[in-house]
Write a structure and sequence with these properties.
The chain is about 45% helix and about 25% strand. The chain is an alpha+beta fold and about 150 residues long. It has 2 domains: about 60 residues, Orthogonal Bundle (Arc Repressor Mutant, subunit A); about 70 residues, 2-Layer Sandwich (Gyrase A, domain 2), CATH 3.30.1360.
Length: about 150
Amino acid sequence: MPSKRDRQALILELIESRPVASQEDLRRLLRLRGWDVTQSTLSRDVHELRLARVPTDEGVQYARADNAGAGDEVRPSLEALLPQLVMSVDGVSELLVVRTTPGSAQTVAKALDTSRLADVIGTIAGDDTILIVCRSGSARERLERRLGRTRP
């Protein structure tokens, strides 16, 4: 009997082999391969696999947030992620709190970490919240402006 591990391996194979724009597209592709999964199961898989919908030259598609195992890395840029995933930014002193869409905090924090911003000492991410420790209060203000201006 196929396992969760098999299903998740197939999901990764599918998103790495072709553009997949939505969970409904992913469900359809899984069904074509013999997997009839519920929307809630697929949502859990997307979350556990740390997949994110990111803008690309071919349109919005799912990509691995950590990019592990990707041959042609799809590394979502900070600027590409912010408008669709960041809901609010607020801070005090050297600390900045970023609220994201559910399940997106790890993706945004990874993009922040890989951007190697001079003003950022480090990030801690949960499911939909990121705590950013900045070098100073003025560094936090600069970052807050940058993160805030990219939101719609």
